[in-house]
Amino acid sequence: MRSDTDRARDALHSIPPDCDRTAWVKTGMAFHAAGGDFDTFNEWSAPAGNYNKQACKATWRSFKSTPGGISAGALFGMARDHGWTEQGKAPLDISGLLRSKPTPKSAEPPRKPAPGMGAAGVYSRCQPATNQHPYIAAKRAAGVPLEALRVVPDSDPLRIMGESMAGALVVPCMAIDGTLSTLQLIPPPDVAARLKAAGKPGKLNLPGHSLQGWFTVGTIETGQTVYIVEGIGQAWACWQATGAAAVVCFGAGNMGKVATALRQNDDAARLVLVPDVGKEDSAFKIAADVGALAASMPEGESQNFDANDLAQRDGGDVLADLLNRASEPGKPEPKVHPLAIYVTIDGTAKPPRWVIPG
Predict the structure, then answer these.
(1) Given a cut of 50, is residue 97 above it in pLDDT?
(2) Beta strands in 254-351 (DSSP E)
(3) What are phi and psi of 183, to 5 degrees?
(4) Which of 176, 197, 211, 344 qualifies as a FRET site for 334, CA 20 to 30 Å off?
């Protein structure tokens, strides 16, 4: 059974972020009330044309949980208005890359992407990716599977956040039922630099689409190892180093949802979460919840240092060794209340070995 926070993330991603400010703020307040986190809210907000990270963070900090305020129920109500429904376990099938996503039933018609912005339509207009693509070359990913990857043609009119997507690497996000959920676009270096300079993400999701599912590098085999990472560069590095399948979550905020779905589809799989530096605590908590392992980058690395960075600097053998040493999440030590004491029979007071707080 999915946790309430997983349900909240699922519902949030079914609501288009490019709504008016009043609806955007209400959505954020409802997601906050549902126990949501800023990283997920920020990733959801990023594809909107008027996105600004600083404004997003300031707005999130203003959200307060107050009696009678906007509740978590408002989030699920808005999500249902956009076609969201509770998702149950479904068979794992990633073969139907170009099948159209089924139109969900709802009281009101779901909001449609702008003309020419449908995931299947954009994907069909693109060209096959090659090893010469700047992003693939920068990640030293020669030899990785490229069959499902595409590149936006130079003449394509697609624009996101005011930038042309010509030349962008296209990574399809596949839902559990095998349908195409959305696309992630990785623009050429000059465009990515402009976006980051403006406080916007360097990787963009297709506006008007719900992020449901993942992308797989390699082949998932029953009962075998599957690495779970944030982005495709990390997935390439894990696959190159070990030969095992690696799953792209499209952001740390989706790692829990993806790990849960993979575990539900294969109880025997050796799932290994491979977080970027700074995301270890969250990854180890997810690993404990789903019965997975977690591999941490070497100590002392900078924020967001990842598996691809390690492989490029130290080699695939070093990464493979680190992945092979993935461990189960440690159990926390019992917490001792700072004021708790007990008295022995001889009248001396000693601190207890442990107590249950409260």
Answers:
(1) no
(2) 270-273, 293-294, 342-343, 349-350
(3) -130, 140
(4) 344
